């Protein structure tokens, strides 16, 4: 059973999402919250698999709630999916950096919404290569200074290569072709790198690759 926490300051939207989720045999809405502070408390109480969190809310916004969930070892199993009206804007970008597994636009089709919840529950990031490339474009337009505390020395050469290719927006199959390995081996390299770097998903790998200086956008 996939346990879901809904966090949105609009009761009507929460009701709509709950109506979609409650009819599914493998999904259960365990709690609802109207702001990030309440959502954070309920995440600790219920330990959901998925926290669907609106990005703009009173008291505590979705970015801060995401950051606190990602920083709490007791909530390591909680995958945050950001809900937004606007697509990949500055707020979503910051939420992904804070630890969100991905984001959904609120006008998503119902079947796509349900599929996304199941994908996130498996631990897979809701971050297609096309979205990864948009993150890269943001680094090109607003370059960040490499952070000295982002240490990739614990990675093998092959893991570093795989992380660099993730940061360039390649899918697992494309990474396998580039490295001349099987897709399963490519996924293994990426998963091991995520474990060593304490990255929650591919979005975090992209951030770490650029903040460590492993990859530099060609447009910089």
Automatic annotation (TrEMBL):
GO terms assigned for molecular function: DNA binding
GO process annotations (BP): phosphorelay signal transduction system; regulation of DNA-templated transcription
Domain HTH luxR-type: 148-213
Keywords: DNA-binding, Phosphoprotein, Transcription, Transcription regulation
Source species: Saccharothrix tamanrassetensis
SMART domains (UniProt xref): HTH_LUXR, REC
Gene3D superfamilies: 3.40.50.2300
Native organism taxonomy: Bacteria, Bacillati, Actinomycetota, Actinomycetes, Pseudonocardiales
SUPFAM superfamilies: C-terminal effector domain of the bipartite response regulators (SSF46894), CheY-like (SSF52172)
4-aspartylphosphate found at: 54
InterPro entries xrefs: CheY-like_superfamily, NreC/VraR/RcsB-like_REC, Sig_transdc_resp-reg_C-effctor, Sig_transdc_resp-reg_receiver, Tscrpt_reg_LuxR_C, WalR-like
Limits of the Response regulatory domain: 3-121
Protein name: DNA-binding NarL/FixJ family response regulator
